[in-house]
Specification:
Shape of chain A: globular
Shape of chain B: globular
Number of strands of chain B: 8
Structural class of chain B: alpha+beta
Largest sheet of chain A: 11 strands, antiparallel
Strand content of chain A: over 45%
Largest interface: A-B, 95 and 101 residues
Radius of gyration of chain B: 28 Å
Structural class of chain A: mainly beta
Order of helices and strands of chain A: HHEEEEEEEEEEEHEEEE
Distance between the termini of chain A: 70 Å
Number of domains of chain A: 1
Order of helices and strands of chain B: HHEEEEEEEEH
Largest sheet of chain B: 8 strands, mixed
Oligomer: heterodimer
Helix content of chain B: 10-25%
Number of strands of chain A: 15
Helix content of chain A: 10-25%
Radius of gyration of chain A: 25 Å
Number of helices of chain A: 3
Chain lengths: ~350, ~230
């Protein structure tokens, strides 16, 4: 082979070799070798300690009515909702956001039925163990904030005009113990997520011009379980429930059931296996549109609301305790049923 | 003419860049593929998620298919002074315990289409309007819900309980469903939070086995509202 040909072949081979890392699936984890070239096997690490940030937007909306996309096929979304969005958030936390291939990530601890903790990500035979791409953990503190959407507006197709519904505000919103792990499924497409956290909102208020008629949701808490005044089990009460003592007891509300999949398969002797939240695209559905987004969102946790009131009427508390969804498949769009 | 070493090097670099670019382009986006026209046309053919104003009500319809299997230790809502004579003042409108949603992992509860309706007290264009009620549910739920239904407010189609007849069993903080422990759904299921403090219908209630029109018209004392 002549020198010229050798050069060209060598160049082509080099190009193919160098392009391999880039031609891997879009969210593929980096190999140790690749990672070591970049950050000495630590991946990309972002940390935040304290700060204040302000959120503002003119509005958010969705509508494709009267529009034609490049394919000439509107998405079938017929709605319009916007408002002036604003808020101030205080970041008082230690966040570690790691992007890379983690051999020893901080474990996601989940509670088993016996009250013990299982470090899901440390299980060596865990099918997801070697492929996390993004791991976010909030080690202490929290994010506190308030936000408000002023003049929440909807487009009324019938009237051909905008209708201002009112203002929506959330006060005393706090996130803590937040964890998020994002994975690529082995040998497949789509993404897998394990997430958990504690969410508290002191008040959620929907208001129009008459403050006495505001819808006021007070003391919303999302977590694993709660302490305080127990819920009455019967209808023999003669006084309202004192919900002031309600507090988060322990644990997080989890998206993606961490360890109960084997229970429902009837093979409890196996090691706990994560059942993550999954997002995939199906292209061969037999009923309805063949192509759809498929989300399986198993979850576990509890929700408490101390009080719901409006128009001077107090509905009292609401409680959903011990929710555990093993299977929660959502296909979007649906099958054209149920209008 | 024999190329010089420099020219050869330049050509090699061009080949390198071209192959590198094509190699990256051809397979580097396989996780976020753009759908073809055909695929996209299939998606939009029946997708009818919409948000509309109907009278004093803002109605959101989500065209989605759901399959759910899970458990719930306790679901309670609406603990307020209903003021029914000879009854304790306070109690749960809804108090369901040890609930199983769906029959099994392979026989889940199936929902097609989600409805969220927010109704205002009067003219939606008026500035002094306020929220009257919120209705959330589906016109198509198929499968089983079992549990200890200690207290239920609302109405249930007797077919849901495996009974004859079409007139609903109307309940106000009632334990009738405790005798059955299993709801076999094949129709609508709606939860209503009625916030109109002056209405006799206020509180939290459920409608099982009837369509959305019945949920909108449901009253504790009226007749034929489920057929309208």
């Amino acid at each position: 082979m002549c020198m010229r040909a050798k050069f060209l072949v060598l160049a082509a081979c080099a190009a193919i070799l160098v392009s391999i890392p880039f031609s891997a699936p879009g969210l593929e984890a980096l190999s140790n070798r690749q990672l070591s070239r970049i950050t000495a096997q630590s991946g990309l690490n972002l940390e935040a300690a304290q700060g204040l940030f302000y959120l503002s937007a003119v509005g958010v909306g969705f509508s494709d009515v009267g529009t034609v996309d490049p394919w000439g096929t509107p998405l079938g979304v017929d709605g319009y909702l916007h408002g002036d969005l604003g808020g101030i958030f205080t970041l008082d936390t230690e966040f570690a956001l790691d992007i890379g291939n983690f051999l020893e990530p901080d474990p996601i601890l989940v509670q088993d039925d016996a009250g013990g903790s299982i470090p899901v990500l440390r299980s060596l035979d865990h099918p997801l163990n070697h492929r996390p791409m993004l791991f976010l953990s909030q080690t202490e503190g929290g994010i506190q904030g308030d936000f408000r959407i002023a003049d929440l507006t909807i487009w009324d197709h019938g009237a051909g005009a905008e209708e201002v519904l009112g203002d929506l505000s959330v006060s005393g919103l706090a996130l803590s113990s937040t964890r998020l792990a994002l994975f690529a499924p082995p040998g497949g497409t789509g993404i897998r997520i394990l997430a958990g956290g504690v969410v508290v909102a002191e008040t959620i208020r929907f208001s129009t011009l008459s403050p006495e008629n505001d819808l006021l949701v007070s003391g919303l808490m999302l977590g694993s379980s709660f302490s305080g005044t127990p819920l009455p089990e019967d209808n023999l009460g003669n006084s309202p429930i004192d919900t002031r003592s309600w507090a988060l007891e322990n644990g997080s509300f989890n998206l993606g059931n961490p360890c109960y999949y084997n229970d429902i398969l009837g093979v409890p002797d196996l090691e706990p296996t994560a059942l993550p939240l999954s997002v995939d695209v199906a292209g061969d559905r037999e009923v309805g549109p063949a192509t759809c987004l498929v989300i399986n969102a198993p979850m576990e946790g509890s929700l408490r609301i101390k009080s719901v009131s409006a128009n001077g009427f107090d509905l009292g508390p609401m409680a959903i305790d011990g929710l555990r969804l093993y299977k929660n498949v959502i296909e979007f769009p649906g099958r054209g049923i149920g209008h | 003419m024999k190329p010089t070493q420099a020219a050869l090097l330049i050509r090699a670099c061009l080949v390198f860049l071209t192959v590198f670019f094509l190699g990256t382009l051809s397979s580097g986006v396989c996780k976020t593929q753009i759908m073809t026209d055909t695929e996209l046309a299939r998606v939009t053919g029946q997708g009818t998620t919409n948000l509309v104003v109907e009278g004093n009500t803002v109605r959101l319809f989500l065209d989605m298919h759901m399959e759910t299997y899970g458990t719930l230790t306790s679901g309670k809502a609406g603990y307020w002074n209903r003021g029914i004579p000879d009854d304790p003042a306070f109690g749960w409108d809804m108090n369901w315990k040890n609930v199983v949603i769906g029959e099994s992992y392979d026989t889940p509860l199936v929902i097609d289409g989600l409805v969220l309706a927010v109704e205002f007290t009067h003219d939606i264009s008026a500035q002094d309007k306020s929220l009257a009620r919120i209705i959330i549910g589906t016109n198509h739920m198929k499968g089983e819900i079992s549990g200890d239904f200690a207290s239920t407010t609302g109405a249930v189609n007797p077919e849901v309980l495996g009974l004859g007849g079409t007139d609903p069993l109307v309940m106000i903080r009632d334990d009738t469903l405790q005798d059955h422990s299993r709801l076999t759904m094949d129709g609508g299921f709606f939860l209503e939070v009625n916030l109109d403090g002056q209405s006799p219908e206020r509180g939290v209630r459920a409608l099982m086995g009837y369509p959305e029109s019945a949920a909108v018209n449901m009253t504790f004392t009226g007749t034929d509202w489920w057929t309208q």
